[in-house]
């Protein structure tokens, strides 16, 4: 099965534009649009009790190998997350935790890997970023950007060309 192959961790594609994004709460003018505007000068600011949630929903079952969050302790201080988890599932009722990271006064992009125990990218329709705690016991949070990455698959026109020549591969070309 050609699609079951493990992909290189460095070979990925940002797929956030294919998803529907929502947040558990936000201050007016500091919502999803700012979280996804490709500017590290803007941010999502939560407005409610912890945990703070970012929901990323795909129309298809999607493999995700990592997320990246942009955080800046020097600018955001007590609004900066200190513990972030990622959950994955098919809907809000079957989410399971796939990763947790502890952050110590971070500045810049933070990678959050979502590989399973077999070294494969985690699959799901719904991915949830959970801000569990902030620095200095802060209540609300700032996330300046989130990017979500899927492995590049064979047949992806943006993936590098691989000249397979095995009999099994060549027989699959005609399916």
How many helices does DSSP assign? 3
Give the total of beta strands: 11
Q: End-to-end distance, in Å?
A: 12 Å
Largest sheet: 5 strands, antiparallel
Helicity level:
under 10%
Q: Helix-strand pattern, N to C?
A: EEHEEEHEEEEEEH
Q: Indicate the low-confidence ranges by residue numbers.
A: 1-9, 156-163
- Overall 3D shape: globular
Strand arrangement across the biggest beta sheet: 2-4-9-6-7
- Which class best fits the helix and strand makeup? mainly beta
Strand content: 35-45%
- In round numbers, the mean pLDDT is 87
Radius of gyration: 18 Å
Describe the protein's architecture and organization.
The protein contains 3 helices and 11 strands. The two termini are 12 Å apart. A hairpin with a 6-residue loop joins strand 6 and strand 7. The longest helix has 6 residues, at 167-172. The strands form 3 sheets. It has a 5-stranded antiparallel β-sheet, with no helix packed on it. A 4-stranded antiparallel β-sheet has the order 1-11-5-8. The protein is globular, with a radius of gyration of 18 Å. With 175 residues, the protein is mostly beta strands. It has helices at residues 32-35, 73-76, 167-172, and strands at 12-14, 19-23, 44-45, 52-64, 66-72, 81-89, 96-102, 107-113, 122-134, 142-143, 145-151.
Q: What is the structure about, briefly put?
A:
The chain is mainly beta.
């Amino acid at each position: 099965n050609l699609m079951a192959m493990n992909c290189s961790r460095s070979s990925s594609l940002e797929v956030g534009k294919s998803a529907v994004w929502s947040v558990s709460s936000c201050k007016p003018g500091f919502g999803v649009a700012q979280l996804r505007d490709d500017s590290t000068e803007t941010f999502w600011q939560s407005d409610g009790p912890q945990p703070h949630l970012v929901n990323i929903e795909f129309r298809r079952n999607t493999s995700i190998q990592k997320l990246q969050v942009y955080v800046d302790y020097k600018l955001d201080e007590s609004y900066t997350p200190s513990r972030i988890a990622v959950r994955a599932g098919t809907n809000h009722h079957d989410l399971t935790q796939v990763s947790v990271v502890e952050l110590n006064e971070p500045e810049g992009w933070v990678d959050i890997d979502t590989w399973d125990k077999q070294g494969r990218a985690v699959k799901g329709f719904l991915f949830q970023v959970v801000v569990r705690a902030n620095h200095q016991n802060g209540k609300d949070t700032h996330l300046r950007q989130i990017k979500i990455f899927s492995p590049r698959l064979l047949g992806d026109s943006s993936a590098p060309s691989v000249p397979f020549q095995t009999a099994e591969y060549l027989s699959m070309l005609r399916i």
